[in-house]
Every structure is written in C-alpha cells, then in structure tokens.
Amino acid sequence: MADVTLKSGKEILFDFSKITLKELQSLHNPAFTDSSDNATIAKVSGLSVDDLVSLPFDEFRAIFFALIRKASRADDPN
C-alpha cells in the first residue's frame, strides 16, 4: 500500500533502508533549508531531487508529513 499517492496517480512507498539515522534526524530540524534534506526525502521516496522540488507545495508537504508520521510510528518496524 502506498504511503502517499500524488495527484498524477504515482504512488510513493517510503524505503527507510535507503537513508541513515542521521539523515532522518536532520529532517526534524525546524530550519529545513538545506538541500541535503531534499536529497534525503528523494532517497527515501524513490523520487529524483529534481522531481521532488518540482512538485506543487501541497504534494511535497503531503510527502514530508507522511514520511515523518511513518518514521515516528512505534508499532511499525518498517
């Protein structure tokens, strides 16, 4: 099941094995201005950085918050 479905119908399934703990923790930094954050989100979502930064803000926001929610769920080891 997809973690996020974009308006285009593309389904995003997060793969946390693609990133390190340090990369994940950097996403919790409220500054969130570093381009390395985009690279981390791209890695875990399977999108390219160019595709990610080209998304409408509402779709980027949906991906970002779904990623944080999924990473924070204590009941799901994946």
Layout of strands and helices, then pairs:
Blueprint (H helix, E strand, L loop, with lengths): L3 E2 L5 E2 L8 H6 L8 H11 L3 H5 L3 H16 L6
Number of domains: 1
Structural class by secondary-structure content: mainly alpha
Q: What's the end-to-end separation, in Å?
A: 13 Å
As laid out across the biggest beta sheet, the strand order is 1-2
Q: Could you tell me the strand content as a percent range? A: 5-15%
How many individual β-strands? Answer: 2
State the helical fraction.
40-55%
Flag low-confidence runs.
Answer: none
Shape: globular
What is the multimeric organization of the chains shown?
Answer: single chain
- Measured on Cα atoms, how large is the radius of gyration? 12 Å
Task: Outline the biggest β-sheet.
Answer: 2 strands, antiparallel
Note the total helix count: 4
The SSE order reads: EEHHHH
Can you give the mean pLDDT? 87
